[in-house]
Amino acid sequence: MTNIDLSTSYLGLDLKNPFIASASPLTGSVESLLHLERAGAAAVVLPSLFEEQIEHEREQFEQLNAYQSDSMAESLSFFPDLERYNTGPEEYLQLIRDAKESLCIPVIASLNGFSSGGWKYYGELMEQAGADALELNIYLVPTDPSVSSSDVERHYRELVLSVREQLRIPLAVKMGPFFSSPATFGSDLVESGAAGLVLFNRFLSPEIDLETLEFVPALQLSQPEELRLALRWIAILRDRIQASIAATGGVHSGLDAAKALLVGADAVMIASTLLKHGIDHLPVMRNELVQWMDENGYFSVEQLKGSMSMDNCSNPEGLKRANYMKALTSYTTKV
Amino acid sequence: MQDKFATLDGNEAVARVAYATNEVIAIYPITPATPMGEFADGWSAAGLPNAWSTIPQVVEMQSEGGAAGALHGSLQAGALTTTFTASQGLLLMLPNMFKIAGELTPSVIHVAARSLATHALSIFGDHSDVMAARTTGYGLLASSSVQEAHDLALVAQAATLRARVPLLHFFDGFRTSHEINKIRLIDPATVEQMIDTDLVLQHRERSLDPDRPVLRGTAQNPDVFFQAREAVNPFYDAMPDILQEEMDRFAELTGRQYKLFDYVGAADAEHVLVMMGSGCGAAEEAVNALNRDGGRVGLLKVRAFRPFDVDRFIDTLPDSVKQIAVLDRTKEPGAVGEPLYQDVVTAVTQAWWSRSVPIPRVIGGRYGLSSKEFTPAMAMAVVRELAAEAPKQHFTIGIHDDVTLQSLAWDEADYDEPEHVTRAVFYGLGSDGTVGANKNTVKILGENTPLHTQGYFVYDSKKAGAVTVSHLRFSPEPIESTYLIRQANFVACHQFNFLQQRDVLEIAAPGATFLLNCPYDAEAVWDHLPEEIQRQIIDKNLQFYVIDAGTIARENELGGRINTVMQTCFFALSGVLPMDEAMQHMQEAVRNTYGKRGPVVVERNLAAIAASTASIQKVTVPDKPSSTVHLLPPVPLDSPDFVQRVTGMMIAGKGDLLPVSALPVDGTFPTGTAQYEKRNIADQIPIWDADLCIECGLCAMVCPHAAIRTKRFDEALLDQAPEAFPVRIAAGGNGLAALTIQVAPEDCTGCGVCVDVCPAKSKEVVKHKAIDMLPKSEHLERERERFGFFDQLPDPDRTTLNTTKVKDAQLMLPLFEYSGACGGCGETPYLKLLSQLFGDRMVVANATGCSSIYGGNLPTTPWSTNAQGRGPAWSNSLFEDNAEFGLGMRLGLDGKRERARALLTQLRDQVDGTLAGAILDSKQRGEAEIQDQRDRIDQLKQRLASLGSQPALELAAIADSLVERSVWIVGGDGWAYDIGYGGLDHVLASGRNVNIIVLDTGVYSNTGGQASKATPRAATAKFAADGRNVHRKDLGAMAVAYGSVYVAQIAMGANPAQTLRAVQEAESYDGPSLLLAYSHCIAHGIDMSTAMTHQRDLVRSGFWPLYRYDPRDAHAGEHPFHLDSRKPSKPFKEVAMQEARFAMLARSKPERARELMELAQKDIDDTWHYYQQLAGVERDNPDLQQTDV
């Protein structure tokens, strides 16, 4: 194998290559994390801790404790003492601690907050547990028509700012594509304190059960073509922000990784393809990237990164084109 | 060493000591002793060591009889062993207690003393249970307060080890077991010093050990038994001294001195009360008050009732005594007097043999049965009686006996509680957190301030919408007022609608503070108050405040839990602590309680505290009442006489005022009374959309309270219907073309189960179903009118219905309605179904448990009657004997029927041979044939009347027994799988025609969710806090093994048609039938509104396979085992995690949860495999050839 330097830097963390295992069931146990490390993952993002879930569960246990308790003389409660039940983040924090103890590669925690206090509270707990960085998995469904897009964006910015003030470890924000001006908003997030952006968050869209006529949760793995959305916006953002960028959603091969790096990503996040093909697909992807770089005369990832950003690419109009397939043809020479 | 204080209840106070000083603890749930077992099990599961640094083994047995057996065995093997019990439980221990005492085995049984069931069951406190144990040879030691119970538990343990005489340590059920009081804790060093290691070793040396074998438990003959029995005498002779020495040693270590008999009051008293237990608290207050007014009165508290030390007793009495009144908290009908009275008379007589002064006069009386209040004023009345010239012998106090005139009169105004005691009373709902908040308040003040605190809580007998009344006292002095608050200086009403239902201000002292939670502000509230409330506010000059706690709780996302808000208001208004100090303690308590539940819950509660103080408003009270609204009558004014006179008083909370003559002499009550108790506890009720309905009948079938009804009727009757009465008209109906579904709006609990199971959804708006839950306030008037019309519509002719179909079965009138069961109860729909199908000829034997409580706890019963006055006849015997009780009913009914048949045969020619033949030969299969038989019996009775002979009169009286009676034996899994299993098994083997239905919740629901042998593997339950680690007992398969028993496993929510079929097959089988009915329960930790549909998932997972084993199919070529559910199609874990009982273990011990869940799945797989094989098995039932089935 040719001597190609795959090292890169993400959120100020030195990575031996640009492949990061993103949040998925594969990063949920130390055993599996060790497997990822052996397979060559440069860093891992642990599955998201969902504050809403924790709070819901706590509330449920709280209610359970209270439900019908102290109501009847013969049965003042219905469950063994609930004090000893762990409905909090302890299991998650233990995973961070165990991961830090067992792995040499950076461990990035991921948080999906819900209350303003919760983002800070859980973020701090994760930092204390030893996480090298924190990925904020922000997603609100603004169903209230009186809430404007600028309200939503302001809320996101304030949130990042408040967590930033609380923590010392670097923050990444995993943002969704559904903003009127993703480039502006991405820049705003960086200004608010994000050390990096992860493009783009894939959201769980509910499915309809035709038997019960109810919405049911459904998760689908990403498809390679989804990457193209991220490629465009990474290329656009790359020249506008001084922060790390990771591509996520649809990176299924080494060639996909090459594309992401070309437009300006510092690293790529992978999950679906590993869930489909197994963790041992990671070296295959790595080899594909190396082979492509070798064949095309690149000797380092640093060289590759951003070489096709909007400023650096040869046909930026290709990025701007929104609706039509046919390229614009010029019949004269520019004067 | 400085004393460490704690605020806890009597059960915990005792359990702490028992746990610390024992190695094996055998437990079984029984109110009010259950919490002691729960504490012990919880501590053991958490790995808490005892005084010898070992973790006590806590083992749940199948009954108290079993617990006593295990106690005996463990003691024989040399372990320090204890158990906890009460009432019937103690009775089941009696045989072993004679053995344990006869063998001089040191041990202590702790008893929360409770009434024995006689004319009725009662869970409340008196001494009838411990008095039934007084011949066992156990020493009997009485504690009269939480502190004493804590202390004497240790004294008992120390004394029994020295004396070798086992001790029964008792304290009053509820009054002491459930009272929270601030006590001084015994420190571990004291425990160590009190328990002599040498004595423990001696106990171990006496144990059964193959290295030094002995024989114990021999059978003895007339030659030696008597002498051997007398050989124990020296130990009993020594016992009183030992007990006193241990009390003295305890006093040296703690400063708290107890005596076998303690005397308080005047040293020169002429009048002395003698009593034991919690009543001493009230009596002591009375004695002190009388002496302050110049009286010469005393109280002798009996702590050691057995052995009864005559010398110490006499020495404790003041020499000046002239009159003694002995108060017994038990009744021994037919005796010269109650036990304590008899002992005192004997002791005094013996002592005065050698004295020349006149013997004091001793009178005896009863008080406080079943936790009847005993107040200082009552004690004063007894003292007054002593002074009378001819005092009543064998009086009662606390009731009005207008039959045998034994009761003493008393006047509560004779006694006022001291000024330094703050007395606060709170009215709340079980679900609003009032009691929890008050317990918290008692703890905050008890543990953070020098104040002494006491909390006592009164619950009603309903499971849904239960009302709670909290009685809290705070004082700089220790509080031993063992009675409810009579005059409160703070009254809080946490639910606005109570104001119209009960007189919450009756208890308010003049000048008291009244805090009302209501949606109105200080300006608006006055006009919404009933006149009676307005009048009392004015007359008593109450300081009246309002708070909108509901809104504050909602704004701070605390849901319906208004506890934090109301607690803050109490601190702000009561002045029991300076407000800033109170705020500090409350905030601290919030952080401690909710800290580990994350910042959000803490933030919300802190915000609610802050918002509450700012939102209290003082009401400016007008000069005179102005309201036209009045307190509602407890029952409708057109209710039957008994309901108005008696039931209504109980409903209104004034049952204490009923005289003896108002009550039946033998515990017999009318049925059908729940209909008069309009509880109105739902916020939302189901409203029917006739256009969408598909007439499946499911809503009515699953309704736990029979509050959704269906009727098919002649559409001509619609002429009198209220306007827009919803109805579906069938084309070409046979005269009964109209169908309606109607809610009983005031009886519905709002559980929502009917809406959840409704399969008919609107095509245009999916969330809209054929019934929707809608706000009751908007629909009450109209639905009340509609229900009134519906109720008077005739029921359809039962003989015309196809009762194999759910929709037709639901047209039958339920004769089980409006029970007080939990909203969404999983048991009651089965009982209601039985009552619809067989209710008019049904006799029920009901095991003690939830079903006996919602079925038979006064004031009302859901068992009711049809238009002909027929309906289920119901009785509860005990917990352990229900199968036998039901079999006895069958035997009795058959005996009566056989006599009727014999008489009819004898009179055959006189009454008409054809008619007699038809009656004697009738098979009575189905509704039509039963109706024919009834008609024939009517004819028979007419002819018999004209005969007038003795045999004719006798036959006329029992002719109705010739109509087939349906005997149902009803109970839960605690009964069927555990305590009653022996009897159940015997009845299954009897071959007699009884129907057994097990309402299987998989836990002891009524006592709060303790594990039974029906509890599934991997579930947590009380007494299985670590998760149950064995496969649930397959009771059905065990019964199938008989081959001659009809067995079915059913789950109404999963397959209503299978349930209906199985119930009918079981009833029609002329032999024993066993139905195992899956019943969801709040103890599962589930959403009760969706619990019926959740049953589908449980069946799909294979957790609860549906099957029917019909012995009638057991003949050549047939397979009697019918597996009705499909192969499991869902992983059990997926379904189980929707229930907190399984999910909790995953949260507390994930590793163990994983292991148990894997085993639980294997249980399911294996059981399914086994049942599949059973379904292919051919069997032969030899009984089939003998009987016509």
From TrEMBL, chain A:
Entries under Pfam families matching the protein: DHO_dh
Oxidoreductase in keyword set: yes
Pathway it works in: Pyrimidine metabolism; UMP biosynthesis via de novo pathway
Stretches assigned to the Dihydroorotate dehydrogenase catalytic domain: 7-292
Top-level division of the source organism's lineage: Bacteria
Keywords (A to Z) from UniProt: Flavoprotein, FMN, Oxidoreductase, Pyrimidine biosynthesis
Required cofactor names: FMN
Annotated SUPFAM superfamilies: FMN-linked oxidoreductases (SSF51395)
PANTHER family reported in the protein's UniProt record: DIHYDROOROTATE DEHYDROGENASE (QUINONE), MITOCHONDRIAL-RELATED (PTHR48109), SLL0744 PROTEIN (PTHR48109:SF3)
Protein name: NAD-dependent dihydropyrimidine dehydrogenase subunit PreA
UniProtKB/TrEMBL annotation, chain B:
Keyword terms: 4Fe-4S, Coiled coil, Electron transport, Iron, Iron-sulfur, Metal-binding, Oxidoreductase, Pyruvate, Transport
Signal peptide: none
Pfam families cross-referenced by the UniProt entry: EKR, Fer4_7, PFOR_II, POR, POR_N, TPP_enzyme_C
Residue intervals of the 4Fe-4S ferredoxin-type domain: 684-713, 739-768
The enzyme's E.C. designation: 1.2.7.-
Enzyme class: oxidoreductase
InterPro entries to which the protein is assigned, alphabetical: 4Fe4S_Fe-S-bd (IPR017896), 4Fe4S_Fe_S_CS (IPR017900), PFOR_II (IPR033412), Pyruvate:ferred/Flavod_OxRd (IPR050722), Pyrv-flavodox_OxR_EKR_sf (IPR037112), Pyrv-flavodox_OxRtase_EKR (IPR019456), Pyrv/ketoisovalerate_OxRed_cat (IPR019752), Pyrv_Fd/Flavodoxin_OxRdtase_N (IPR002880)
Molecular function GO labels: oxidoreductase activity
Coiled coil: 923-950
Recorded family membership: Belongs to the pyruvate:ferredoxin/flavodoxin oxidoreductase family.
Protein known as: Pyruvate-flavodoxin oxidoreductase
Source organism (scientific name): Stieleria magnilauensis
Biological classification of the source: Bacteria, Pseudomonadati, Planctomycetota, Planctomycetia, Pirellulales
Gene that produces this protein: nifJ
